[in-house]
């Protein structure tokens, strides 16, 4: 039987090309994995409740699907990180995180300009809150970029911040002489004007402070209060909105600039979608939680309690609305203009016309 001739060996150039092609194919999964962007995000505290749980966290956990970008986010609520919610901007400036769910009031000591989003009396309802957020967005974005290298991607509300008390009240005037939990200087000055004693207490510590009598009353949104069990240690709720508790999403300019223009557009569109969802959801929660706290129906999002619903009087409404000109704007302007000359003029030019203020 004749022997078959041996196959010719590959030429050296062909062999080299084959090995290179094979290596390329084998490396594809690794290369694709390396192409994915990994970002670290600070979220709202777990204790704040349903917006964090049902809107924010799912968005970040499904970030690639929601944005259409090869980005994976390591999302951590701030109360699991050992970082204070007053330190968010400092942490972002240091480059320790890429994205932040920014607590506006809590970080206003580091950057007073941002509190212009949420002056006491300026946004007592959702419709006004939207107008204020839109009017002041570019001002806040520019300031955060300048001072902290953080780009503002969206603004959204927890909703009207109302009063909870463990002593009987019939109107705002009844908090005279009472200790009231507050979360920023603007609100503190208003409580002083009404005759109360403002006491700064973190959200996480408020339930215990009410229970122990450290404070007699406390201010937050009705849904957050329900989630944190405040109605267990209070008896009355007065549903008048002092502030809208506007918050924002920010991203370090380093991470933002690392994206291509089309990726930036997709990312911004995704955050626009998220913030619009939260605006609508927040309003649903607000109305439902008021019912839950007072033991009324419908109550679908929280636990039923038995708080007394204190009627909001025209005099109380006028007191809160008048706070902008009398207290919150002058107090804030003095502080803000010191660190950011022209700060209050910027607000007067953008937000004041929306509110019908001269």
From TrEMBL:
**Which InterPro entries does this chain map to?**
DctP_fam, TRAP_DctP_sf
What does the record list as coiled-coil region(s)?
none
Give the protein name, as stated in the record: Bacterial extracellular solute-binding protein, family 7
Q: Which organism is it from?
A: Variovorax paradoxus
Output the Gene3D superfamilies linked to this UniProt entry: Bacterial extracellular solute-binding protein, family 7
UniProt xrefs under PANTHER family: BLL6794 PROTEIN (PTHR33376:SF15), PTHR33376
Question: Signal peptide span per the entry?
Answer: 1-33
The Gene Ontology biological process terms listed for this entry are: transmembrane transport
Entry-linked Pfam families: DctP
